[in-house]
Amino acid sequence: MNNGRYGRFGALIGIAYVSVTHCRFLIYSTKNAEVLACHELKLRQIVHQAGWLEYDPWEIWKYMQECIETAYKNLVTLEIDPHDIIAVGIVNQRGTSVLWNKYTGQPLHNAIGWSDSRSTPVLRRVLHNVKQNVDYVRERTGLPLSGCFSALKIRWLMENIPAVGRAINEDKCLFGTLDSWLLWNLTGGVQAGVHSTDITNAHYTSLMNLSTQQWDAKLCRFFNLPIEILPQIRSNSEIYGYVLDGPLLGVPIAGVIGEQPACLMGQLCIKAGQNVCTLDDSCFVLLHTGTEKLESENGLITGIAHRLGPRARTNYSLEGAISNAGSTVNWLREKLRINTEINSNDNVVESLNTFIGDSSMISSTCSSSMLNAECGLAAKRSEITLVPAFHGLYAPYWRYDARGIILGLSSQTTAENITQAAYEATGFQIYEVLEAFKRDTPNWDHACMNPVLTFGGEYAEDTHLVQFIADIMGYMLERPHTASPAGLGAMMAAGVTMGVVSLEYAIKMYAPPTDVFSPTTTPNRREVLYRRWDYAVKRCLHWNNFETYEADIELFSQRERDPNLPIRRSIPGSIFMVTSFGLLLLARYLHNNPLT
């Protein structure tokens, strides 16, 4: 879709990308989706208390300016004409919230990260008012009540930061997620800044009505928030404004989209039934549902995949958000000083390859040096189960009061066993979301659907880990060689605006080589392990209930030894019901046919 006006790489699009850990600017060729130039800087994560996560908004803006300038210079160094850059797109972590003074441009507080749990007291109060109904606003928003969405973060700032309250009272306050903050500054800030956001980011605030795709006054009243501070909601593909300073002066900002919907599009999962999993410190699993808006009854988020233009039809998704995935591994490494690097720790590799016990099948990704007697004689899988609910559980439970738990410790437990349990936890959490997908789509023909999950993210680069998760879940995993799926998705959104990219063109020209991982375990063994995980989750949901602990442990042990225990326990009740029914029939017969 590129004409002769541009150089050998066709029209170029720059993407400003703020993730949980990095700030980066990528310059894409729309001809073949190649990243021609890129510069990134690591963000400073500010942690004042356990569960809190902040970012300095000014630092994010300064870093983005540096990334843009450096990537632009790199493009010139490569002798590629920078005037071929026809548009800029923005992609960002959703839910991270910032408030700033619209007259000075000064942030009123650090940006609060999406996974920050400081608003838990506010959430507890809100849930008390609605009789613990976590789905109270789901019909309007598609979301459960949770502190990971922006509404409760704003409420906490209003109650605890005096400068925020004053700015709101004086009509000086603006709210936005990181896309709004970058957009406002790129388009002139105090002088002429555009205060807008896209529907995928607006959705993650808990203040947007999913049906109208506009701010909902009733929701704002429910959370006691002023609607005046909110940005204008727009589609993912349209001209938001123009860059007013720097090397990209005059370039239109033609697309904005949240990180996970961008990953869904960037992995080319643009048809109903396709799903994608992004595994970083947290984990997100999305199922594209096309133009069908499905209301989840199984703890998932009803979200927006994309809307590629003001007049385009909205595509929806079901989403499972998992708060602790790669961060669990970081916790083991940084807090417990455990070596979690799979490729550098043969004991961990052996542990992963033998997780199914004595009759294990060696993973298809074992290197030839490992296919020896030691692999066959590796120790039996330990019975450790770790649930990383450090500050609650998200999908599909949405329990802020859950806490992490490790079950099955013994004197023989090793660091490798704990590492293995952490990786298992990631696989089981993904599996729970995939099963919730099935329950929320009862009218879909799952028998005709290929059980394939597109896999990406920082931790997906580890081949051993990806194979292990495929074994845990029993799903085939595809790992496309896409450097930055979210960046590519944002480029596609901006490219649609500029008329140089279409979804059909992207499927044809942007499809990368793909690695495939097939499960090597038996369904029976996976079921046994999942039942143990399910029990551990129930314990972490009720971690402070000590009264039934010993009875529960004994019952779980009996079930492990005797899988038919529930059936046999039901026999006396079944006999009672059958005999009662028989006696009832006999009494009626005798009533109608008395013995005379």
From TrEMBL:
Pathway assignment: Polyol metabolism; glycerol degradation via glycerol kinase pathway; sn-glycerol 3-phosphate from glycerol: step 1/1
Gene Ontology molecular-function annotations: ATP binding; glycerol kinase activity
Enzyme Commission code: 2.7.1.30
A family per Pfam: FGGY_N
Enzyme class: transferase
Gene Ontology CC terms: mitochondrion
InterPro entries, A to Z: ATPase_NBD, Carb_kinase_FGGY_CS, FGGY_C, FGGY_N
An example Gene Ontology biological process: glycerol catabolic process
Cleaved signal peptide residues: none
Ranges for domain Carbohydrate kinase FGGY C-terminal: 276-497
Membrane-spanning ranges: none
Keyword Ubl conjugation: no
Source species, domain of life: Eukaryota
Homology family: Belongs to the FGGY kinase family.
Entry protein name: glycerol kinase
